[in-house]
Amino acid sequence: MKAAAYARYSSDNQREESIEAQLRAIREYCVRNGIQLVKMYTDEARSATTDDRPGFLQMIKDSEMGLFSAVIVHKLDRFSRDRYDSAFYKRQLKKNGVRLISVLENLDDSPESIILESVLEGMAEYYSRNLAREIMKGMKETALQCRHTGGKPPLGYDVAEDKTYKINEHEARIVKLIFEMYASGKGYGDIIHKLNQEGYRTQTGRPFGKNSLHEILRNEKYRGVYIYNRSVSKQAGKRNHHKSKSEDEIIKIEGGIPRIIDDETWEAVQKRMSKNKKSPASNKAKEIYLLSGLIYCGKCGGAMVGNRRRSGTSKALYVAYECSTRKRTKKCDMKDVSKNIVENAVIEHLEKNVFSPEAINELVDKISEYAKSQSKEINRDIKAFTDQLAGVQTEINNIVAAIAKGMYHESMKAKMDEIEAKKANLTIKLEEAKLQAQTHSPTPGMIRNYLQKDADIKNKSLEEQKCIIQVYIKKIIVYEDRISIDTIVDLNGGAKGI
Ligand SMILES: [Zn+2]
């Protein structure tokens, strides 16, 4: 089997293994299991909760090319810490015939493993959010002293040794020019022309554009307000499902930093900006299709895809799934099916058959049993590594004792180096196994809790609904007179195929 490795290291968690350590573990796993490693993808120093992962996205893209049939990660949370994200990309890999393998988590494709996997992902996600909260706390404390918390300071400011802001006179002149020109009624075009004529550049060294001007003119820092909000980290990734409850994350301190713009100019600029504000851009809300990748046409077997159109004299919006064959070639005459109707049917089906109290009881039992069998394996590993480590220590002690008795021989040094390397290797393995035992053995209570949260599917956001559906639904086939729904667990409250 050919496989690709994926490793990720996020700088906001000092406790995690380095890229090198992750790749080493993956390489060892491949050797043990006769897997040929053909490609390696890495992302470094990026936050775990953003989607800014060029290596990852490249790997997903390359999975279409048939170069490898598995992606191997050290731990599942390296793949993703967001359940929706994970379900989405895993499905994409699956479509391309690529399997996800974790070195530390021993997961197969049984219903128990799929659900356990989603429980583990939920735990990892929770952990990530907690960590984010901890980091936020630290940053807030720093922030409250009106200090710079990272990144480039805004145009017009430098960061002093003690991390406070001080005015950069040269840049402050540019800021003043921008504010004064705008306040006096000049347009963006005039201002940009003037700035470029003078050879001025933005903080990132680029010529000024409308967006950079807009940002500057709206930045309250210029009137001396210290602002801290976590959108700093949001800039790193466009998509963020756990968008902060932004208001309570924003800290503003009036007079917290030296001002560049006086109140009068500031007010004039804000007034003019509000007046010029266009009506909100007609941002077409992006439709979220809960059943993407799961729903198929009963006539031709093709995938059904989401579609929205306006129809009739009233131009009412009609959102539906339609047969991709029909859409593409007209060779199928399957009618489309209303998005609402089929999605509601699927959710009701899940509530009745997978999330009924009886079904949950049975699932909790099955999954706990499965998790226990998994942790048995870990505990066996822990014992084996502990025993081997004790053996190695005895060898070391013997050599030390021999040397102490004056029986030194040249060959002892080489031998000692070899044993020390063995010891280091075993220690790492033991630590890994212990970590796994600790963080990856959910109790029955945790599993129940988790399933019950999923069971509340009706009250979840669309993104969350989509991710639950992606876990529990295998396939949906739409016929003209009925819909067939295949879940990973059986209709009568029992787990299927167990
Ligand atoms: Zn069709």
Question: Any overview of this molecule?
Answer:
The chain has 498 residues and is α/β, with parallel strands linked by helices. It has 4 domains: 2-139, Rossmann fold; 144-276, Putative Large Serine Recombinase, Chain B, Domain 2 (Hect, E3 ligase catalytic domain fold); 295-345, no CATH class; 357-483. It contains 17 helices and 14 strands. It has helices at 19-32, 54-62, 76-79, 83-95, 111-143, 169-183, 188-197, 210-218, 231-234, 246-249, 263-276, 324-329, 339-353, 357-404, 411-439, 444-455, 462-472; strands at 2-9, 36-44, 70-73, 99-102, 157-159, 165-167, 226-228, 251-253, 295-297, 304-311, 316-323, 337-338, 473-478, 483-487. The strands form 5 sheets. Strands 2-1-3-4 form a 4-stranded parallel β-sheet, sandwiched between helices. β10 and β11 (316-323) form a beta hairpin. α6 (169-183) packs across α11 (263-276). The longest helix has 48 residues, at 357-404. The radius of gyration is 29 Å and the shape is flat. Mean pLDDT is 81; it is low at 230-248, 279-284 and 493-498. The protein binds zinc ion. The site of zinc ion has 9 residues, from α12.
What are the main properties of this structure?
binds zinc ion, Rossmann fold, three-stranded mixed beta sheet, Hect, E3 ligase catalytic domain fold, single chain, 17 helices, 498 residues, flat, four-stranded parallel beta sheet, 4 domains, alpha/beta
